[in-house]
Design brief:
The chain folds into 3 domains: about 1-105, Ubiquitin-like (UB roll) (Roll), CATH 3.10.20.30; about 105-230, Orthogonal Bundle (Fumarate Reductase Iron-sulfur Protein, Chain B, domain 2); about 240-314, no CATH class. α7 (about 170-180) packs antiparallel against α8. The chain is of the alpha+beta class and about 325 residues long. The protein has 14 helices and 7 strands. The longest helix has 15 residues, at about 240-255.
């Protein structure tokens, strides 16, 4: 089976798409296809790779606008998925492109420093005794330790696409969740405060980072755990945490959102007053009735039972 790879090229400021036709062999991955092109068709094609075993994360690229780990994604499977004989390959999104499929990781590493990405052992530990923890304590964060820094989550993060300046990359939140959940760290609040200041509550919850993670680490879930930790560790309230608490209280108490008071409980009286024109438009169109009594969902007992069970499981 022949397959065309339309590869986005970028050399010295010049950009174009170049087509390469290759013969797909059984079990051929994207990375093997790229090596085939570089060895036999175009030695100038540039990309990154190292382990070829889904461990280093260096070879991640986008295929038809979706991030993939080039060393594990099979070309025949991709052709079947998209029902095409032509695949479009481009560098990861939300990165600066250096050349062809190579992106610049240095700014990402620098951003990671904002969460203080190192373990601060508790005073009870020593060089002689080491940092001991139980298997159960290790299980709380071991999943997040599997991040290979491939960048797939960053590439497909809609919040990063909209604005990278006020929101960290998803893999950095995964790193922070690992440190916050690690029982050996004496000051998890240090990491948690840093991610709150760096945009924790600005996540759009689109789940793209989780959908594209080749290691099934659930970065979106890590962000939610960090949010929950802000309540557990009693961090200073923010607009994001106030909103989450208001929604939780409404669902628990009545099973329905109280739209009349949600803004006030989230932003406070002063800031919510600035949104008065929006409230007026809603009332004019019958979308909001400030005099209406907040109803109670007839299934409130079931809703409360579900919330209680979810809390027990957590």
């Amino acid at each position: 089976m022949k397959l065309t790879l339309a590869i986005h090229r970028s050399v010295d400021g010049k950009e174009w798409i170049q087509n390469y036709e290759i013969e797909i062999k059984k079990g051929m991955t994207i990375l093997e296809g790229l090596h085939e092109i570089k060895a036999n068709q175009d030695a100038s094609l540039s990309f990154t790779c190292s382990c070829r075993s889904s461990i280093c994360g260096a070879c991640a690229v986008r295929v038809n606008k979706n991030a993939e780990l080039a060393c594990e994604a099979l070309l025949v499977d991709l052709a079947k998925r998209y029902q095409t004989e032509k695949l479009e390959l481009e560098p990861l999104a939300n990165f600066k492109v250096l050349r062809d499929l190579i992106v610049d990781w240095q700014p990402k590493y620098e951003r990671m420093q904002t969460i203080h990405p190192r373990l601060n052992p508790k005073e009870e530990f020593s060089l002689d005794k080491g940092c001991i923890q139980t298997p159960a304590e290790f299980d709380r964060y071991k999943k997040y330790a599997g991040c290979i820094l491939c960048g797939a989550c960053v590439s497909e993060c809609n919040k990063n696409t909209l604005n990278q300046k006020n929101f960290l990359d998803p893999f950095i939140f995964v790193k922070a969740a690992k440190l916050v959940e690690d029982s050996r760290d004496r000051n998890p609040e240090e990491h948690l405060k840093a991610v709150v200041e760096a945009g924790l509550w600005r996540c759009m919850e689109c789940q793209e980072c989780t959908a594209k993670c080749p290691k099934d680490l659930d970065p979106a879930g890590a962000i939610e755990k960090l949010k929950a930790a802000t309540f557990r560790l009693k961090l200073k309230e923010t607009v994001g945490s106030n909103h989450a608490k208001a929604v939780y209280d409404d669902l628990h108490d009545s099973g329905m959102l109280d739209e009349k008071t949600l803004a006030t409980r989230t932003e406070g009286v002063f800031l919510s007053a600035l949104r008065a024109p929006v409230a007026v438009r809603l009332m004019t169109h019958g979308k909001l009735n400030m005099l209406e009594r907040h109803p109670v969902n007839p299934e409130i007992k079931t809703i409360q039972a579900i919330m209680t069970k979810a809390k027990e499981v957590e």
